[in-house]
Specification:
A hairpin with a 5-residue loop joins strand 9 and strand 10. Helices cover 29% and strands 21% of the residues. The protein contains 15 helices and 19 strands.
Length: 525
């Protein structure tokens, strides 16, 4: 059933086998996986059926270093379905290398291998109604163009994007599975033991409260909210769950994504390009397949690179600094971002109205070439796990009484090296064919040793409750149980030790289905 505040608050105590906090990709996949296995579940969602500013403001916080492109508040959504409400539906699986220890990437390596996830990737494809073969072997899809010297990869588009619309009938009709709306997490209760959760307390924005007892508890709230809830679990005389070795909240990662060069012919002009994704959408009979091209493993190993892919697409001309900050100001005014905005940014906007106008014209133009859109090469790369990138708490509290977060995010020299080497490698492949080449974007020329200003990631938060063999190097074990606890689990991209190049949701669902089977086995023993 789907219960509103008046329904769930009518009882002071609820019970289930498993309590899942969060109704997004992780929480929904766990709940539906468990329901099929005969386990009783309650899922709590802090928001309601629709977006409200009251709920969303809980995601406000502070930041230092590089700001997320959409800010802390604008990078995720806090209502039924979670961030599937803004998910683009792109599905892809991590590469074999992502799970391995790579000597040139400190703190790399997962405690599981890709083989451990393969059965669940297949189940995730069924869950989302896509062809797994298009994810696994994109070159076998009709009309997929192979790029000699690069590895063929893909993101496959699912139509099952907004989980509220797609799966709410399951919660309405299935037995032993309840969804509590506007049921905000307030605290964990550890009555019987310091390493065990006995129940959680939930509350509404109008002050209604209840308790939920369960055998097992799963946090499924995303890469920033998962560590925030755990960090808030500290009590007098008791440390926060998963924080013994100060790994909780650390190793935050996201995907650096940005256009970096324009494809031109050898006369220096823009031209049609056979790998232009914008003109060559591929349909496998069930879904759209978006081609990506990966720097080969052998090249990554030789030069010590992060996992990186490229794609070619028709888009606006390179954005100027003035147009970039004008876009940020628009997002700030319309509530789509919560960036810091400085006087120097306003000066930048005012100093170049022509650059802003040119950017608008380019964005709205349907023609490639001069005065219109270009064929851009765009990178999407893994981020090196840095211990200094972290989610921590500040003294300011939200309306529910939980401490807000501060996110520190930055890049290493390895990201810069990966982009520079990848661009050079692809340019060499093009020059060898003597048909086309790349013209590097001005931002990369004018800002050496920095990534482009026009970063377009910011919604693939990963790594803050990382999976590890023991608690000295991470927060959860290979079965996603928080180290040092009896019955508390975490699921989502926050458990990724490294984030690969690929969008995370498909792997999140695979991990959710894997966790549901593990919990069912433990409960049924």
């Amino acid at each position: 059933m789907i219960l509103e505040v008046s329904d769930w608050s009518s009882k002071s105590v609820h019970k289930s086998d498993v309590l899942v906090i969060g109704s997004g990709a992780a929480g929904t996949s766990i709940a539906l996986g468990l329901q099929k296995l005969g386990v009783s579940i309650i899922v709590t969602e802090g928001g309601g059926r629709l977006y409200t500013e009251k709920s969303q403001e809980c995601y406000e916080g502070e930041s230092s270093g590089i700001e997320l492109p959409y800010g802390l508040k604008g990078s995720r959504l806090r209502f039924y379905g979670g961030s599937t409400n803004c998910w683009g539906g792109m599905c892809g699986e991590l590469n074999e290398d992502d799970f391995k220890k790579r000597d040139w990437i400190p703190d790399s390596g997962w405690p599981i291998n890709k083989g451990d996830l393969l059965p669940y990737y297949k189940k995730a494809a069924e869950f989302l109604g896509i062809n797994y073969s298009s994810v696994k072997n994109p070159e076998e899809v009709d009309k997929f163009k192979r790029f000699n010297g690069l590895e063929s990869q893909s993101l496959v588009h699912t139509k099952k994007q907004n989980f509220q619309n797609v799966f709410q009938s399951k919660f309405k009709n299935e037995k032993n599975m309840d969804l509590f709306l506007n049921a905000n997490f307030l605290n964990f209760s550890r009555v019987s033991s310091a390493d065990k959760v006995d129940y959680i307390e939930i509350g509404s924005f109008n002050g209604k409260k209840s308790k939920i007892h369960a055998k097992f508890f799963v946090l499924a709230c995303g890469g920033i909210e998962n560590p925030r809830i755990l960090l808030n679990s500290a009590e007098v005389g008791r440390s926060a769950f998963g924080s013994v070795h100060d790994n909780l909240g650390r190793y935050f990662c996201d995907h650096p994504i940005a256009p970096c060069a324009t494809v031109i012919d050898l006369k220096g002009k823009s031209k049609n390009f056979p790998y232009n994704e914008s003109k060559n959408y591929i349909n496998d009979g069930k879904s759209l397949v978006i081609p990506y091209y990966r720097i080969p493993s052998s090249v990554q190993h030789k030069y010590g690179l992060l996992n990186s892919t490229l794609k070619f697409q028709e888009q606006e001309d390179e954005i100027s600094s003035s147009a970039f900050y004008a876009w940020r100001l628009k997002n700030l005014i319309t509530g789509k971002g919560d960036h810091k905005f400085h006087v120097k940014n306003l000066v930048d906007i005012a100093s170049d109205p022509y650059g802003i106008l040119k950017g608008i014209i380019s964005k709205n133009s349907s023609n490639s070439g001069e005065g219109g859109k270009r064929i851009a090469m765009r990178f999407q790369i893994e981020q090196a796990p840095l211990r200094s990138n972290k989610v921590s708490l500040v003294s300011d509290k939200d309306s529910l009484g939980l401490n807000r977060v501060k996110l520190h995010w930055g890049f290493s020299e390895l990201e810069i090296k990966t982009v520079e080497t990848s661009v050079s490698y692809v340019a060499s492949l093009m020059n060898y064919r003597k048909k086309s080449t790349l013209m590097l974007d001005k931002h990369l020329l004018e800002r050496p040793s920095k990534l482009p200003i026009d970063l377009r990631g910011g919604q693939h938060h990963s790594g803050t409750t990382r999976m590890s063999i023991d608690q000295k190097t991470g927060v959860v074990d290979k079965d996603l149980k928080v180290h040092g606890t009896q019955n508390l689990f975490v699921c989502g991209s926050s458990v990724f030790p490294t984030n690969g190049w690929v969008n995370p949701t498909f792997t999140i669902i695979a991990l959710g289905l894997r966790l549901s089977e593990h919990l069912a086995r433990v409960i049924q023993k």
